[in-house]
Model the fold of this input.
Amino acid sequence: MKTIRDIDVKNKIVLVRTDYNVPVKEGKATSGLRIRASLPTINYLLEHGAKRIILISHLGRPEGKLTPETTLYPAVNVLKKLLPELTIGFYHLPQKGKQIPIPDNVKVAALENLRTDPGEEANDKNFIKNIIDAVNADIYVQDGFAVVHRAHASTDAVKNFLPIYAGLLIEKEVANLKKAIENPTKPLLFILGGAKVSDKQPLIDKFANSADNIFVGGKIAADGYKATSDNIYVAEDFDENAAGDKLDVGPLSTGKLAGLITDANTIIWNGLLGKAEDPAYATASTIAAELIGEKQGVTSIICGGDTAGFVENLIADHPNLSYSLISTGGGAALEFLLSKDLPGLSAIES
Done:
């Protein structure tokens, strides 16, 4: 897989597919994880003489409509705060056959939410070609890991018009996930939580033989999931509310998980262990996150939107915590772990 390290970007206009699909509340982005994750690629391109960088992304599911709730501006506003030394432009998607007039002093520009045009999700060649022509792009960089499992115009159809190279975020995500699948440092521990057995069973089946231990918590454990092999431990005690609902992994099972984390050299965690949005039932997830983040010399991968968001918030209060990868891709990371074909990765030059 060719990356931006393999090409000369000097004096080139580089179109970069990022993933700025961040939660927004009252017109403000409430998480900067994915935006910060794009900075290494942006800075690398600038440092290596790119003439201009054009960022494109989607946000939410606008169903082809641009409204105050579907604009990408809250995410771009976070980027402006992260790069205060730059003049960052923000422009509507181009009309057919029209150029976007970007001043020479604008080194980084962002375009409006891709999905406000139906052409994005329809994988429409003409839609992405119009964007390429409107900004005079020379090179395309795929750095939106969270969308590489989608066959959309900005992940798939674009390959018909420009050479595609991986950004540094894609490089980091793929390297860490690939190592965990193909050559993990043993023992390998897979921690699974969340609510839907249908989402997790394929992962359990995939890693039942390669993982030394699989710990199952969350609602799937509370609902009575049964282990199918000796290396699978299902949480057996729970913290309950007054109505008897099992809302977090209990102290006995949390202690078991702590021991597994201590012994592991590679840890993959997907899915919260309890109803962690309520601090009363975030104990097991907090203990797991802190133990993993404090552990030295371990490969630690956090994947899944809720899990990544939880760990990100924990880091804000505990900056000493460190992880090999907090994946920006929920569905994409899971499909990669399951060795599925991802259109956005297949389109990258090899």
